Amino acid sequence: AQSVSQHNHHVILSEAASLELGCNYSYGGTVNLFWYVQYPGQHLQLLLKYFSGDPLVKGIKGFEAEFIKSKFSFNLRKPSVQWSDTAEYFCAVRGPGGSYIPTFGRGTSLIVHP
Amino acid sequence: DTAVSQTPKYLVTQMGNDKSIKCEQNLGHDTMYWYKQDSKKFLKIMFSYNNKELIINETVPNRFSPKSPDKAHLNLHINSLELGDSAVYFCASSQAGYTEAFFGQGTRLTVV
Asked: Which residues, 6+ apart, have CB-to-CB distance to B67 below 8 Å?
């Protein structure tokens, strides 16, 4: 079975600070990895995804993530956050270990103070 | 056009009632899902369904049942609602394999 761990449950930053959210997954086979964002009261939207190739993937709104296979990690980064980045962030994995059902981490609540 | 749409957006009902939440996707995806998001924002898979296979999370009470009239729809029916069923329910869809899932707007269910 596959699982996803997000280490930071609550993160509070000031605008312009740098962001890194940790994500580790359990399944050792071929997987695809995703980061989703959920703004208050809204549905989940895809930020970025990793399927193969360059382990550094760039997404929307200036976010990027790095896939490190040896560490089973897929951390999300942004060099300079904005107040509008306040949201819940979810890491997800999809692969044969979980019958290809997207499995989500518990989420990280990010609050950015202006 | 909304890719994954679910109705209603809000649902307030009394304990013991039976209710349904509808979901439709116009993306041509072959797999649809229902997730439950609790008050701590945790997203738990409830069902995964394509035209060949229904996968049920064993922790989901059998009061919950998915119904798929066709490939583009996966409705969620809930019998004998309980207070603990209060949550936000998300429908999603994807293609088989590794692609990303697309989510509906969610249905906030409140059982009183």
From this structure: B74, B75, B76, B77
Q: Is B103 on the interface with A (CB under 8 A)?
A: yes
Chain A residue at shortest CA distance from B55: A99
Cα separation values, B111 from B7, B11, B47, Å: 17, 8, 21
List the CATH number of the domain containing B38: 2.60.40.10
For A62-78, the pLDDT digits (tens) are 999 999 999 999 999 99
Domains of chain A: 4-113 (2.60.40.10)
Best probe of the B interface among A44, A51, A57, A99, by most B CBs < 10 A, is A44
pLDDT of residue B1: 65
